[in-house]
Amino acid sequence: MLFSPGWRAHVRQGEVLAVFSLGLFLGGTLSATVLWLLSGFAAPLPRAARIGALLAIAVAGVVREAGWIRVPLPQNARQIPREVLQYRVRRGALQFGFELGTGVRTYVSASAPYVVALGLVLAHQGPLATILTGTGFGAGRALTASARYASRNDEWDDRRVTRMPILTNAIGVAVLLALGLLYL
Predict the structure, then answer these.
(1) For the whole prediction, is pTM greater than 0.70?
(2) Which domain of life is it from (predicted)?
């Protein structure tokens, strides 16, 4: 959680949220740029092989979200040090947001971001489409933090937890359909 219930910092919460969100956008954009560069390695593969691999990965993601198979996802088990957000609030929020925006700072429990990342590598789209997708990842994370901040209601977390399986399964199916449409 970015804000503690007893917030007493000299910086306003909305300002910290804005800096944190900027970090999320920048981190997602950087990750997408790296994915676009890596997609050059997939370009020489035959189109049919890339489509087959992409669909297999997408189906595996949807099946994992449905709970039919168990596939461990990569995770970074380290927690952010308390000092990052305690002593330099703005800089710490930017750093933390950037690390979260890259997708490598925390455990991402949903399969969809991994499916999209591998799909971007295999699809070998142009830099604009790829970078906008990464920026969208950062925006999605920023939207969650902003919605939580705007709600100012502890019940928000309870509602989010009950709806998350539905959302992740719907997103998994949407990702599968979107990746399939890339090659029609």
Answers:
(1) yes
(2) Bacteria
Is 32:137 a contact under the CB 8 Å cutoff? yes
pLDDT of residue 5: 44
Q: Where are the domains of the chain?
A: 13-181
The count of other CB atoms within 10 Å of the CB of residue 10 is 5
φ, ψ at 45 (rounded to 5°)? -65, 145
Question: 78-119: per-residue pLDDT in tens?
Answer: 777 777 777 788 888 898 899 888 888 777 778 888 888 998
CA distances from 39 to 51, 107, 153, 177 (A): 14, 24, 42, 20
Give the residue from 169, 148, 146, 145 showing the smallest Cα distance to 157.
Answer: 148
Convert the pLDDT of each residue in 38-87 to its tens digit: 999 999 999 889 988 988 988 898 888 888 999 888 877 777 777 777 77
Angle at 31 (CA atoms; ends 29, 37), nearest 5 degrees? 105
